[in-house]
Amino acid sequence: MKKCMTICAVICAGFVLASCGSSKESAYRKAYEKAQAQENTTVIEQQTSAQVVAPVVERQVTDNQTTDNSDNVSVRAEKVELVSGSGIKGFGVVVGSFGLKANAENLQSRIAGSQIVFNPANNMYRVIATTFDNKADAVQSRNNLRAQYPDAWLLYSK
Q1: How far is CA 5 from the centre of its chain?
Q2: CB burial of residue 37 (10 Å; 0-12, 13-18, 19+)
Q3: How far apart are CA 30 and CA 25, in angstroms?
Q4: Contact 145, 137 (CB under 8 A)
Q5: How far is CA 135 from the centre of its chain?
Q6: Exposed/middle/buried for 122, CB within 10 Å: 0-12, 13-18, 19+?
Q7: Cβ proximity of 89 and 128 under 8 Å
Q8: Which of 16, 46, 94, 154 could form a disulfide with 75 if both were Cys (CB 3.0 to 4.6 A apart)?
Q9: What is the pTM of this model?
């Protein structure tokens, strides 16, 4: 009789332990899905809050040669506040975007003459490597910086 009760107790303990593992996995799965949903909504909010000027490409064809108007590059317009640096002009080349100020400061320390701006609409710190009054110079600088920072983009500060 004791043998039978011991076997039943071991089997019950096995079921209890097995069921605990699946509840942990279920809890982790729910937390992961919740984090994914928050991340997706944040990305959508960032995309809708930023104004993107769609590029309009004008082409001129002469003697079978096509020339594109290189000034027609997309620009993101945001209202930003200067956090550190000498100041920003109308157009800036952003080489990094961070949620934490410390990360932005780390990148700024490696780029001479760069600035940090803060966008309060989406709580992002932007590291601006160069800043210009006109778009053409900013486009040229962005193209040069893409050798080192492939995701560099143009920011028009409102």
Answers
A1: 60
A2: exposed
A3: 9
A4: no
A5: 23
A6: middle
A7: no
A8: 154
A9: 0.56
DSSP secondary structure string for all residues of the chain: -HHHHHHHHHHHHHHHHHHHHHHHHHHHHHHHHHHHHHHHHHHHHHHHHSEEE-----EEEETTEEEE-TT---EEEE--EEEESS---SEEEEEEEESSHHHHHHHHHHSTT-EEEEETTTTEEEEEEEEESSHHHHHHHHHHHTTT-TT-EEEEE-
Is 126 within 8 Å of 119 (Cβ atoms)? yes
Structure tokens belonging to residue 127: 């590291």
Amino acid at 127: V
**Any idea how long the chain is?**
158
Q: Would you write out the chain's pLDDT as a tens digit for each of its 158 residues? A: 777 778 877 787 767 666 655 555 677 777 777 777 776 665 555 544 444 444 444 434 443 333 334 457 889 999 999 998 888 888 999 999 999 999 999 999 999 999 999 999 999 999 999 999 998 899 999 999 999 999 999 999 88
- Give the count of alpha carbons within 13 A of 124, CB side only: 20
